[in-house]
Design brief:
Elements (H helix, E strand, L loop, with lengths): L6 E4 L12 E8 L2 E6 L23 E2 L3 E10 L9 E4 L2 E3 L3 H9 L8 E10 L3 H7 L3 E3 L5
Parallel strand pairs: 4-8
Antiparallel strand pairs: 1-2, 1-9, 2-3, 3-8, 5-7, 5-8, 6-7
C-alpha cells in the first residue's frame, strides 16, 4: 500500500489521458480509498483571480485533479499558522482553515514552498490505486515517503 507522503508518477500507459506526465502526492490511503494531488500542473489562474479571494495577494494554484474542482485543498508545512490539519508524513500536513491560509499568505508571507493550494483532487476506490500500480500505470518515486 502506498503510504501518505508517497509520490507516484504516471507511466506511458496513461499518455493521452488526464494523467499524462503527472506526479501525484498521496495524502490518504486507507480502507475508504486513496486521495492525492497532482503537484506538477499549474492552474490557469492564481488565488487572487478567484472571486472570493480577490483581496488576497497573488498566489499560485495547482490543478490537483479532476475530482471536485469547485474547492481548494491545502497541503502545507505550517501547523503553527494553520490549525485543524491532519499529518501526512513528517513535517507535511493536509487540510485546515482556508481563512488561516489566507492570513498565512497575506500577513505572514507564506510561500508556495510552505503552502500548496490545489483546485480539485485525485481519488481512488479501495484497492483501485494498488491495482493501477500493479498494472503499470503508476510508478512510486523512490524515497518519497
Amino acid at each position: 500500500m502506498l503510504t501518505p507522503g508517497s509520490y507516484i508518477k504516471s507511466t506511458s500507459s496513461l499518455d493521452g489521458s488526464y494523467f499524462e506526465n503527472s506526479i501525484i502526492l498521496i495524502v490518504e490511503n486507507n480502507n475508504d480509498g486513496a486521495v492525492g494531488f497532482v503537484v506538477n500542473r499549474p492552474f490557469v489562474r492564481s488565488l487572487n483571480e478567484l472571486v472570493e479571494f480577490k483581496k488576497s495577494k497573488p498566489f499560485p494554484l495547482l490543478e490537483g485533479g479532476p475530482v471536485d474542482q469547485e474547492h481548494i485543498y491545502i497541503v502545507h508545512n505550517r501547523p503553527d499558522l494553520i490549525k485543524g490539519t491532519q499529518p501526512i508524513s513528517s513535517g507535511m500536513y493536509y487540510g485546515g482553515d482556508i481563512k488561516q491560509v489566507i492570513v498565512a499568505i497575506n500577513v505572514h508571507g507564506a510561500t508556495q514552498k510552505e503552502i500548496q493550494l490545489f483546485i480539485g483532487y485525485c481519488g481512488w476506490d479501495p484497492g483501485e490505486l494498488e491495482d493501477e500500480v500493479a498494472d503499470g500505470s503508476w510508478l512510486q518515486i523512490p524515497n518519497s515517503a
